Amino acid sequence: MFTNSYKTDGFFDEMFQSDGLVRPHYQLVLDRFLALGKQEFETKRKALDSLFLSKGITFTVYDDEEGTERIMPFDLMPRIIPADEWAHLCRGLEQRIQALNLFLHDIYHEQNIIRDKVIPASVVFSAKHFRREFMNFDVPRNIYMHICGVDLIRDDRGEYFVLEDNGRCPSGVSYMIENRLAMKRAFPRLIQNANVRSVDTYPQELLKMLKYVAPHGMDQPTVAVLTPGSYNSAYFEHCFLARSMGVEIVEGRDLVVRDFKVFMRTTQGLQKVDVLYRRIDDDFIDPSVFRKDSVLGVPGLVNAYRAGNVSLANSIGTGVADDKVVYYYVPAMIRYYLDQDPVIRNVDTYLASVSDDYQYIMDNLPSLVVKAANEAGGYGMLVGPKASAEEIENYREKIKANPRNFIAQPMISLSRHPSYAEDAFEGRHIDLRPYVLSGESITIVPGGLTRVAMRKGSIVVNSSQGGGVKDTWVLKK
Amino acid sequence: MLSRVADSLFWLSRYIERADNNARLLREYFQSSLDTETRMESDLRQWEPLLRVSGEIDEFEAHYPDPKTEDVLHYLTFNRGNQHSIFSCIANGRANAHMVRDQLSSGLWEVINLAYHELKGLSKKDNEDEELSELLSYIQDASVQFQGLMDATFPQEDGYQFMQLGRFLERALGTVRTLDLKYHVLLPQGPIDVGGAVDTAQWVSILKACNALEAYHRLYLAEVNSPKVAELLLLKETFPRSLRYCLQSLDHYLRRLTGTHEGQYSNEAEKVSGKMLSDLSYSTIDDIINQGLHEFLVEATVRLDAISTSIFQEYMFLPTIDLNSEIQQQQ
Question: Which residues form the domain of A250?
C-alpha cells in the first residue's frame, strides 16, 4: 500500500521529507502500516465505517424520500504533531484568543482601538455580526469568545498560518473525540506505544468553563446545550457534548422566559436554566430581538441575558471577530493589546475595500483565492487557479458590487498528508482545527480536527465539499 | 425531565413494542396461511382480518384497488406510507430515539439505529417474500435486545417510567388486537365447528402470536379452548402479555412517577388506569364472555386510548407557545 511510488510532488508532506525519508515522529506509524496487509487494512477500515454508521455519526444525503445517511470519510493514517510544534501552536493560539477577547470587550465599550486608528471604524461597524444593541453591556467574567475553533494550515515550507477564526458556533469537536475512539479500536497497541496525548477531557473542560461563567458567580448552575433540533447537521455533536457533560439538551421550544429568567419546561413544571451553551447563531436566538421569523429561538432570551440571569457561550456579538475583513487586523490587535508579535502569522490578505488592494485583486484574480467576508463551510469562495474564465468574470462582478464583502489571499500550497485513496496512499491537502476554551484560564485540549481534501488536487477540506477527517495525535515529548 | 423528552421516550418504547407485536402477528399469520388445513381462507381475503384488526383496511384498499398477496405483505412490512408498517414503526422509533440521543446509552441507541439500517437495506431488495421470516425474527431479536439493554443500562428514574408506560400501553393494545383477530376471522366465515380442528388451530395461532403457547400449556394442562385462551390473555395476573399484567404495570409506573400509594390516585392518568385495573381484577372470564368478547375488546381499546391521552395531558402536553404574543410580551 505504501509503494515506492509515493511522491511528495514538491509539496510540504507531513510524513516524508523532500528526500523521501520518513520524518522521525512518523517512524512508528510507518512501520505499523508497512506491516499491515491490504486485506487487514480493508477489514479495519470497514469495521470503523460500520462503527460510525451504527453510532449515527452521519450526515444525510437526500437521494430518496427517506434519505441515505453517509458517514464522514475517515482516513486511518493519523496526523502527528510533535510536542515542541504543539507548544508553539499553543502559544500562538492563547495569544490570539486573548487578543480577540480584549478586542471584543473594547469595541463594545470604549473603542480605543478605533480611536487609535489601528482598525478603521468602518470595518467594525459594517461587519455583519457587529451587534450595536450590546454596546456597553458587560458579559460575565468579561469573556466573549468561550469556544473558538481556529483553522490552521501549513505552507510549502511547513510554516503554520492562521486561515480563519471560528468564533461563533464552531463545530467538529465531537469528531476529534470519536476519531480517537475509533483509532483506539483499530490500533490499540500502536497508540499506546506512540505516546499520544489524550483528548477525552474536552467535555469536562467545557463544562468547567461553562460553570465558571455562570451568572453572579453562582456555585451549582444548571447548564444546558441549546440546539436548533434533531434536523441540524451537527445534532449528533450537540447530543454527544450534552451527554458527555451530563447536562440537558434543549431546543428553543423547551424554553420559556418569565420575569427575565429562562426556564425549561419539564414534567415537573418549569425549571430554571443558568448557562446555555448555545449552538444557534445570534440571528436566530431570540425572535423578539433578531430575526422575527426564527422558530428556533426563545423570545425574551436576550432580555434575560441582559438582566444577567442567564449566561450564553459564546456571547452575543462575537461574530464581528470572525469576519474575514476583521481577520486581516488580528495581528495588529495582538500588537496593540498585548504588545507582542504574533506567534502564528496570518495568511497574506488583500482587502477589496482598500483601493490599492482592490486594484491588485482585480489584476490578479486568476492566481488568488477570494472569499466572502461572512461565509463559512467553503461556500462563496473563488479558487482562482482552479476556476474557469467565466467563473472568474462572474466573481469579478460580485466583488465590484460590494468590495467590503471580499478578501483575497494568494493560493497557498497547503501541506499534504498520505491518505488512503482507492488502493494506495497518496498525498492529500489537510488543515487543522484546534479548539480553544476561554474560562478561568485558556485551555487547549491537545489535539484537534484534521480535515482532508479527499479529492485529488483539491484544497477545500470542508465536509460539505467532499472533505474527510483524520485522527490528530499530539505527542507527549 | 423535559416534557418533550418524556414524550419521545414514551413513543420510542411504544414503537419498538408495536413493531415487535406486529412482527409476531404477521409471522404467525403468514405461517398459518401457508398451511392449507389452517388457512383462514383460500384467496386474498385471508389477509383481510389482519388488515381489519390493525385498522388498516380502508387505507389499504384505497391504495391497492387490485391487491396481490405481495402487496399485503409489503404494505404491512416496508410501506412507509403505512404509519403502522414494521419499517415505519422502526423508523419512527428511531426518529424519537434520535431526538433524545443524549438520554440513551450507546448500546441502546445502536440497537435501534442498526435495526433501521438493516430494514432500510432490506426494503430496497425485491425478494421480500422469502426474507420475510428472517426479517420478522430480526425485529423480535432487536426488540428483545432493546428491552434487555433498557433494563441493564437505563437509570430507573422518570425517563424509565415513561418508557415502561409506553411499552405496557402498547403491549396491552397488541394483546387486545391479537385476540380480536379471531372475531374478524370468523366474521366472514360464519359459525364454524367450535372446538373442531380448524377452530383449535386458530386459537393456537393466536397464542403463538402472543408468545403464549408454552405458558398456556404449563398453566392449563388442557386442550386449547377459547375461554381459557381469553382468560390467559386477559386476566392472568402472572403472564407478562396479559391485559391485566399490563394494567398492573401501568398502574405501578404511573404511581412511581408521583409517589402515590397503591389504591389511590393523584391525577387523571392514575385514575383511569387504576379503574380499569380494578375492573379486570374483579372480573371472571365468564363475565367477559357474557358481555361478548369482541365488545369487551372494543371497550378495552377505548379505555387504553383514554389512559394514553391522560398521560399525555398530564406530563407531555406543552401548550403551544404563541410566538407573537411572547415576542410582544418581551418588548
Answer: 201-313
Buried residues in B46-73 as b, exposed as e (16+ CB within 10 A): bbbbbbbbbebbebbeeeeeebeeebbb
Per-residue pLDDT at A1 exceeds 80? no
Residue A137 in domain: no
Contact A236 B101 (CB under 8 A): yes
The one-letter code for the residue type at B245 is: Y
Q: Which residue has the cell 520524518?
A: A23
The structure's pTM equals 0.86
Q: Are residues A239 and A288 in the same domain?
A: yes
Collect all residues of chain B within an 8 Å Cβ-Cβ radius of residue A239: 101-102
How far is A207 from A459, CA to CA, in rounded Å? 35
Q: Decide: B12 and B108 in contact? Cβ < 8 Å.
A: no
Note the ipTM here. Answer: 0.75
Q: Which residue of A has its CA nearest to B101?
A: A239
Question: How many CA atoms does the CB half-sphere of B200 hold within 13 Å?
Answer: 7
Which strand ranges, in their side-by-side order, compose the sheet holding A368-372?
A: A350-351, A406-410, A368-372, A381-383
**Cα diameter, chain A:** 70
Which one of A379, A410, A441 terminates a domain? A410
Please identify, among A286, A313, A340, the residue that sits at the C-terminal boundary of a domain. A313
- The half-sphere exposure of B81 on its side-chain side, counting CA atoms within 13 A, is 9
Note whether A299 contacts B1, CB cutoff 8 Å: no
Question: Over 80: is that where the pLDDT of B82 sits?
Answer: yes
Chain A: residue whose CA lies nearest to B116: A54
Cα angle value B42/B23/A56 (rounded, 5°): 145
Q: B185: how many CB neighbours lie within 10 A of its CB?
A: 23
Please report the pLDDT score of residue B261 as a whole number. 93
Q: What angle do CA A380, A386, A392 make, to 5 degrees?
A: 60
| CATH value at residue A387 | 3.30.1490.270
Which residues in chain B touch residue A267, judged by CB atoms under 8 angstroms apart? Answer: 1-3, 6, 158, 257, 315-316
